[in-house]
Amino acid sequence: MRWSQFDVARQRASIRLPDPAETTMPPPEGSFVPDGADLGIRGISALVTPSADFYRIDTALVVPVIEPARWSLKVTGLVDREVEITFEELLALPLVERHITLACVSNTVGGDLTGTARWLGWPVRELLARAGVRPGADMVLSRSVDGFTAGTPLEALTDGRDSLLAVGMNGEPLPVEHGFPVRLVVPGLYGFVSATKWVEELTVTRFADDTAYWSTRGWSERGPVKTSSRIDVPRPNASIPAGRVVVGGVAWAQHRGVAGVDVRVDGGAWQPATLARPISADTWCQYAATLELAAGPHTVQSRAVDRAGGIQSEAFVDPAPDGAEGLHTVTFTVTQAPELPSTTRGTGPGARERQA
Questions:
Q1: CB atoms closer than 10 angstroms to residue 260
Q2: Phi first, then psi: what are they for 158, rounded to 5°?
Q3: d(C-alpha 165, C-alpha 143), whole Å
Q4: Of 200, 192, 270, nearest to 229 (Cα)?
Q5: In this structure, what are the phi and psi dihedrals at residue 35, rounded to the nearest 5 degrees?
Q6: What are the tens digits of pLDDT across the range 159-169?
Q7: pLDDT tens-place string over residues 308-345
Q8: pLDDT band, very low/low/confident/very high, at 32 (cuts 50, 70, 90)
Q9: Which domains does the chain have, with CATH numbers?
Q10: Would strands 239-241 and 199-205 be described as parallel, antiparallel, or unpaired?
Q11: DSSP 320-352
Q12: Is the Cβ–Cβ distance between 167 and 182 less than 8 Å?
């Protein structure tokens, strides 16, 4: 039975993932981070989010337990031929590893429902090519073993971006809560239309003919990720010693890529921040700016610019129905430097007595 109870930890531990046939950017030996991609500033989010810290948002009240040997994925619908693939067959294919940032549509401005991992998987477009997509299709309805569905634009799975049937996360088999044994990872789209965990079926169809889980609940159909940035340092309400103040964080615009980040203080002019070397258009970037600020309270904001020329919106918009907008704003205080005690000694008459 697919839902039988078994030692899932033992099953995961027994899996030996193959080496990737291809990687995004080979990191230096002993590291998972490519050169120049990490600014090394304390407090800024790690470029690669540890699996244990990766956000989890899904509809599963009970995490599905799936035995890899019993797992399979079917491709049905508007295809020339139905295709089915097993976990063993999937591991035997030339898998690729990509650094990809995922974001939840319910993430608020400045929120933490976004993260980056090293995903190992097989391109979905290769599986769809095996099935042969028929003309007129524009959506793939992915289905989880727990009944959840997501409607992904067909274009996002076939346009050359690194949409994956993922089997690995940060060098290990997927954690159970993140979709073990197989899940979808689609850069550039919010998870509610793309990131199906415990996936077991892909139905090639049309938006006009099928509706996914969240679309029936008032959320948008297509869900492209919006250009966004977050301030990680300084923290809200922090007290910072006088001197140079570092403002930094992360920015993302998956599939378009981040071209730059600007910061401004107290509603003043925008100033360009230093941007770390981007790993890819599908990965968030660290940024930082060093500012000279007078003592007292200050408010700082950030905005990202993507490679398509899009600028992060300043107008505040709630997450529903297609993602939050607005500028992350952080208020903090620069403290006055203490005055140094006087060390000057007198030299006139009576000085010796005053110094005794």
A1: 17
A2: -130, 0
A3: 13
A4: 270
A5: -55, 135
A6: 999 999 999 99
A7: 999 999 999 999 999 999 999 999 999 987 665 655 44
A8: low
A9: 8-217 (3.90.420.10), 228-335 (2.60.40.650)
A10: unpaired
A11: TTT--BS--EEEEEEEPPPPPPP-----STTHH
A12: yes
